[in-house]
Structure formats: C-alpha cells, structure tokens
Amino acid sequence: MSNEPLASKYRPRTLDDFVGQEHLVGNDAPIRKFLETGKIPSMIFWGPPGTGKTTLAYILSLNLYYDFHKMQAVNSGKDALRKIIKIALGNQQYGKKTILFLDEIHRWNKAQQDALLPYVEKGIITLIGATTENPSFTIISALLSRTKVFVFNQQTEEDIYTLLKTIAKKEYPHIKISKKVLEYICSLSNGDIRSALNILEMSTTLASAVKEGEKAEITEKILKDTVQKPLYYDKTGEEHYNIISAIHKSMRSSNPDAACYWVGRMLAGGEDPLYIARRLLRFASEDIGNADPNAVVLANAVYESCQKIGMPECEVFLMQLAIYLSNAPKDNTAYRVEGEVKEDIEKYGNLPVPMNIRNAPTKLMKEMGYGKNYEYDHDLASKKSNQQCMPDKLKNRKYIH
Fold this sequence. Notes:
7% strand; five-stranded parallel beta sheet; Rossmann fold
C-alpha cells in the first residue's frame, strides 16, 4: 500500500530484523532462546513508547505455532476476554496454545486482571502484556508473580540512525537528506523508533513541496519549523517519579547543574510548578534542616511566588531555589528523628507522660502528684535542668546525636 505509514511498512518480521534490545533478542538472550525452543512463558514487556514491545510480540506471533490474539486494554474488557478464553479452551483440545497480547495492560483495573489470572495460572493462556508503567505499581502481585518481566530500554540514536539511513535511501532517493539531518531526527525521537519514522515521513512530505526544477531537501529549518520535539513525560506515570527523584538526589549530591536540568525537564513536560515547589520545600527541611534554616524560608517564599505569577515567569524562581538548595549545607537530622520517633510510638504505644511534667490546673490533680518535683528551668543558674521528660521506658532514649 502506497499510503501505508513507514512504521507499519517496515515493521520487522524476524528477530534478525529487529532493532535494538540486544539484551533480549541477541545471541543467547532470553527471548531468542524462547523462540528457538518454540515455547514461551507468560511475560510483561515494560518500557517507553516506540521501543519495540508490540513489534516483538508480533514477531513471536509469526514464528510460533500459537493462536495469537491482540487486545487493546484501553477499549477492551471482560467480554472480549471471555471470547478469547472460549477459543483458548477449544485450542487446548487440539494441543494448540493461545497467546494473548494485551497492549497497555496497566489500564486494566484489579477486577479485570483478576479475571485473567486463573487462565494464565493454568496455562490456558500465555500472556504477553505491554506497558509503559512500572508493573510493580500497576499489575496485581498475583499476576506479576506468574509472569516474567522484561525491560525494554530506549533505543540508541546509533540504532535509529542506521534504520533511518536504510529506509531513507530506499524510500526517498529523490530527496536530499544529509547525515546531520538524520542525526537531528534521531535526537528529536527521544529513543522512539516510531516517532523517528513519523518525523522522517512528515519532513519528506514537506520537503517535496518545492517549485519545479528545484531539488527537494530536508533542511534543519524544515524540522525546527514543523516538528515539536516530543518529551516522554507522564505527569502521573513512571517518568514523573523518575524525574522528581532525580531532582531530589541531584540536590542531595550538591549538584546544582543536574538539579536545574531535571527541574527544567519537568516544566517542559507540563508539570505543575506548584508540585515542584512543594517537593523543594520538603527537601529544604528533610535534607538541609537546621544546617541552614533560611532554606525553608526561601523555599516557602518561592512557593508563594509561584502561586502569584505562574508559568512561565515562575520558572526562574524554581531554578534559583534549586541552585540554593543544592549548594546549601546538608543535615537530615529532623528527617531521621521523625522516623525513629514513629518507630518508638508504634513499638510502645501510648506511654504515659512523667508526673513531674504534667500540668496540674486543679487541686485534685496536684494531690495526685501531677507536676510534683517539676523544675522551672528559668530559675536555675544553668537555665537547664536534668529532669526526666521522656516516658519511663524511653528515659534514656536519644534521637539527636
């Protein structure tokens, strides 16, 4: 078909044509071994978009004697699953196995995943689930324990370049495409082969719109003017947590350059600046604390400033704060003490307050010993008593070292 998209037209049909993921499909790699034996387990393919999850499932379907069914989790549910299970039970009678490829499996809720579980457990269905989200958070533990998780990495720019060069030479011999332009397309793709092919296809269409007698050429200007650089960022998904973790750990390592980069990445991906400001405010107390009390003051001021002026003007406030927090001295005493106190409360429960530091507003309470032997520290020459303030079971407990 002349109008078939490149991503579909050049979808690999064998492992030898598959691009990247050598740790999965290379010599002696697990997926290749499964395919060679003709028997595969239930699996979860986890990785960013365009890294070959669906393509690899397609290759397995072409090269195994299995009955292959594909479902999109976003628009399929239990009814569609029941039909496939009925087919799978029939296949069992003839010794034929059934693969269910469930794309975006993370979109299925617990009840839907529970409905699938017994058939995976009994081997009636071999499941291949594809997800861009961390399976630990999105797939029920019972189903996860019965599958093997394989991680797909972002494709390297070198692998994408090799593929684009081959396709461009074959499909667009009449269009001039320089090495620099192909490399730029690889950079724009963010490790997503499908995105790279789509960019190539769009740019060749635009490059072809030239006057008669002129040479068609993809220029950097065409790419910059027509392609918005995609950022792989999901405000509620795995990459959200990866990047906020990167911000925290960069500041903790006193690396302001990295901290600013990750803050910028979050903002470029459309993150709410107030979310970032809240996380930086927390960091100011958790990782800096009393080593520099002004950190909390500045972080709070930046949060309020972000509330007042919003994006894009507040971006510089967040950068300023990230630099300050990165360069500030670090002390996690308050954070550590918080955890130790919680442990003691959980371990010992409601320990009674020592009598000497209890309030005694009534005569009866005084007669019962409330406040007895209390030392008023201001009346002491040292201004500091050694009286017991902790419960008896914790009287020698020290949180601050």
